[in-house]
Hints:
The structure is a homotrimer.
Chain A: H1 2-8, H2 15-44, H3 61-64, H4 71-98, H5 104-126, H6 133-156
Helix pairs in contact in A: 2-4, 2-5, 4-5, 4-6, 5-6
Keywords (chains A, B, C): Acetylation, Endoplasmic reticulum, Membrane, Mitochondrion, Mitochondrion outer membrane, Transferase, Transmembrane, Transmembrane helix
Family (chains A, B, C): Belongs to the MAPEG family.
Pfam family, one (chains A, B, C): MAPEG
Amino acid sequence: RRGEMAKSTQLIDNEVFRAYATYTAIVLLKMMLMSLITAYFRITRKAFVNPEDTASFGKGESAKKYLRTDPDVERVRRGHLNDLENIVPFVGIGLLYALSGPELSTALLHFRIFAGARILHTFAYLIPLPQPGRGLSWAVGYSVTFSMAYKVLKTAWLL
Amino acid sequence: RRGEMAKSTQLIDNEVFRAYATYTAIVLLKMMLMSLITAYFRITRKAFVNPEDTASFGKGESAKKYLRTDPDVERVRRGHLNDLENIVPFVGIGLLYALSGPELSTALLHFRIFAGARILHTFAYLIPLPQPGRGLSWAVGYSVTFSMAYKVLKTAWLL
Amino acid sequence: RRGEMAKSTQLIDNEVFRAYATYTAIVLLKMMLMSLITAYFRITRKAFVNPEDTASFGKGESAKKYLRTDPDVERVRRGHLNDLENIVPFVGIGLLYALSGPELSTALLHFRIFAGARILHTFAYLIPLPQPGRGLSWAVGYSVTFSMAYKVLKTAWLL
Lengths: 159, 159, 159
């Protein structure tokens, strides 16, 4: 059993895979942070969507008025959805890319630029920064994922 | 080629990886179930969003009245989106965690608590249960993913 | 170090894993394409959601009128969300399936049908095709993922 376990954990001994694991954990934690920011704005702006969430504010009309949308809450939610749309492809394609045998320096370049771009994107969305700040940070992350997909398809292609 | 194939399928022989595979399949199937529940409520409540989905109810105004939102449909959809926001990080970070060489018992504890919390979260959302039922089940799943991310970063850290 | 790297990149030498990598990259790229189509419709229909995105159209009321929803934009966004809900389970369960030692021909059958069904689903959603076109293509992709999950649970089951 010892031997098996050693074999199957060897992926984590590979430097490219370790870099992938580090950056994937970072961007997924960043995405998870959006839930906390949404909760923060829902509570401070008193803007909820589920009737059971406003029960502590009293019954009937007095609680009903907190069932509303708030621009700040909606903004964080859009940022969260944008994360899902962009971080899911990074995690999936990035794993295949890490297993396709890239140079460590090339892989690190991809992972660092993607993580930096997504962190910038969140700031650009939440502050908000004037365009094209958010657009550019989105495009940079998108391009990095596209570049990794190209390497994956070139290495693995079997249709 | 035989040898290669044997080597690359050995991950599934590792007990921690088998546990990860089992719980990941379970929570992803649970998430997929939300699509069926949404379809069930859309059909029984006659609440659709695409004009082409109401064509079987007749033409013009008689069909148009079914293009509407329904509280039960929206509730399931919010539960589905919450699953995406929380199960995606579990699947991504959980894979890296399973490859970071944890004890089987520790890994099973993480996976079991996460799966249990997400199943409870779905019941709390759909029944709905009074708060803090849904909030607590969400927080437990969130904390488990956070704990796995900590182990991944401690083991793999390469920035 | 050489030896380690060779070992950890061997997954990509396995034919089933190469097929998984190819089809996963294809469906994730297809999902990413939805962002570009959304941007295309937002710009051509002049329908935006963030005030900072309309700043180039002038100030005050003249820009505010472009903060609106557009049926074509909303349609692409629904298609994108449906991709997330269905492609995420495929990527997660498909990886475990590829590692569970299926026959290459069986695996290819699963991957090809899923990718074909999701490409059809996008056309059915965006054209749009009359039902049950979109419904059937959705159900085919869903069933393929379910079939792979069954194989994963049968092979890996450790609760």
